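TL;DR need structure tokens for one chain.
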Amino acid sequence: MSEGNEAMAAYTEAIGHMAAGRLDEAVDAFRRSVDVDATFAMGYLGLGQAYDRQGMVDDAILAVRKALELTPEDPLAHTSLSRLLQQKGLIEEAEAEMAISARLSAEGDSS
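>> reply
TL;DR here they are.
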């Protein structure tokens, strides 16, 4: 199985665990997805969501920032980071991320 397929398989498994509320298993599977393919931004974004649901906001922020390093034009990742920063009380940073997300979404709609 190629790296991309293996990463996607682990990601799909993680989504199933998330849906069933098995957060520890979801984190493990998301980690596997990015261990197999360190450029798999969706894996980092999912890992951030799982950490957030576990109340591990700092770890969630780190994971989402990694996703953004890989895909800086992803409006969903900017929205996710904005929401996490709001939870930490970092309102100015959160608003800046939301503005980036809105701009990217608008650019995507016009193309």
